[in-house]
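From the methods appendix. Each design record in this collection lists the tokenized structure first, followed by the designed amino acid sequence. Records were kept in a plain field format so they could be parsed without special tools. The example shown here is representative of the layout used throughout.

RECORD:
FOLD TOKENS (398 positions):
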């Protein structure tokens, strides 16, 4: 039903993700009680699995729309965004949770790590479509896409450090983090993902040389690649989020941009097909009582995170990002770092492993705040950026 009005929705202040969240609230147990996810089993496990699948599909879609040459030409800037910028955002988020909610430091660090990464699923509508192409410079769109794909997987490192310290003796936690988490879960996952992506691309090229594959099956092939990568991550018990993005990124390095143009558009449609249900599911499991327990501190945290987690960091790093030419572009990138499906995944995973409901209470509130704020401001700020850059260009030419 949302798809039938998708063209009008793209020009409205009510994006599909926000409408899906609202529908979930309406059909959930708090309103019409048509769907009760709690009755189907463990809510944390259900949301974790749904988010993992949605992320897997979304991350391959992100990789397909990034030109193969982009990471090679902009690797310094990308390392800065997924390295220093991410550390700073984690530190700011941790400080905000610690000061506003008054939680113990390492619990605050865990929640701060969960809400640090930019979500690739929620970021996709911002950087795709005709309006984005007309108003947002191409390098900015690619930077947001690459960052949102890479830092979700690397967020695993930031999430598991406080988790291990909370659940193990400190010395044992650090050793486990350096050996198991860093070397195996992240290092091996990256290498394994690169190998899967390379192998999948070469097999596709071999099939095309032999004229053995129909064009319409190429989309099915890329979706299967996402599912294979997710399954491989589970099989080796590693960071499947990073593994999927690594597989997609290597696939794009081998397959040329022209050859994957149709897959890119098709993959975006598949992304929407999986993204809408996860936001409906989220609406049915929102912890209203937990939010009330947080009180005004919870709302203050959401506002502070949205305003302070990313915009100051991007403004600070702007001189080192060669494709970010103006403060307007830096603020645009800083504002549009949505918190969504990746946070659902990590929050559900950590709540399940720690048994601490405050993780879900705080993170779900931040997710809903992000869905509302970024959803409502997406179209207006995109047009505002286009007008601003157009005025600056006209002024420089005049």
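DESIGN:
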């Amino acid at each position: 039903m949302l798809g039938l009005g998708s063209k009008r929705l793209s020009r409205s202040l009510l994006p599909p993700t926000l409408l899906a969240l609202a529908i979930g609230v309406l059909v959930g147990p708090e309103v019409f009680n048509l769907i009760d996810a709690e009755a189907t089993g463990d809510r944390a496990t259900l949301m974790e699995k749904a988010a993992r699948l949605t992320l897997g599909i979304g991350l391959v879609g992100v990789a397909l729309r990034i030109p193969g040459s982009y990471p090679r030409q902009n690797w310094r800037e990308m390392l800065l965004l997924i390295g220093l910028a991410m550390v700073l955002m984690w530190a700011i988020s941790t400080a905000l949770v610690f000061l506003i909610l008054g939680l113990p430091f390492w619990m605050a660090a865990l929640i701060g790590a969960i809400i640090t990464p930019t979500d690739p699923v929620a970021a996709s509508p911002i950087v795709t479509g005709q309006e984005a192409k007309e108003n947002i410079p191409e390098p900015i769109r690619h930077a947001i896409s690459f960052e949102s794909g890479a830092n979700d997987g690397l967020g695993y490192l930031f999430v598991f450090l406080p988790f291990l310290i909370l659940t193990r003796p400190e010395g044992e936690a650090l050793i486990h983090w350096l050996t198991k988490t860093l070397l195996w879960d992240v290092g091996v996952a990256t290498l394994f993902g690169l190998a899967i992506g390379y192998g999948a691309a070469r097999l596709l090229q071999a099939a095309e040389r032999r004229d053995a594959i129909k064009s319409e099956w190429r989309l099915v092939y890329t979706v299967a690649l996402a599912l294979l990568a997710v399954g491989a991550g589970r099989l080796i018990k590693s960071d499947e989020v990073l593994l999927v993005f690594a597989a997609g990124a290597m696939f794009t390095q081998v397959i040329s941009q022209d050859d994957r143009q149709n897959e890119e558009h098709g993959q975006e449609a598949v992304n929407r097909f999986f993204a809408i249900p996860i936001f409906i599911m989220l609406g049915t499991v929102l912890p209203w009582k937990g939010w009330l327990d947080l009180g005004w501190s919870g709302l203050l945290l959401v506002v502070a995170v949205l305003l302070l987690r990313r915009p100051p960091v991007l403004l600070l790093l702007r001189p080192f990002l060669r494709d970010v030419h103006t403060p307007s572009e830096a603020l645009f990138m800083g504002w549009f770092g949505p918190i969504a499906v990746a946070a659902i995944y990590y929050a559900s995973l950590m709540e399940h492993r720690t048994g601490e409901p405050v993780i879900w209470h705080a993170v779900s509130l931040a997710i809903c705040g992000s869905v509302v704020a970024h959803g409502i401001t997406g179209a207006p700020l995109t047009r505002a950026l286009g007008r601003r850059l157009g005025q600056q260009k006209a002024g420089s030419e005049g």
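APPENDIX NOTE: The domain at 13-385 is CATH 1.20.1530.20 (Na+/H+ antiporter like fold).
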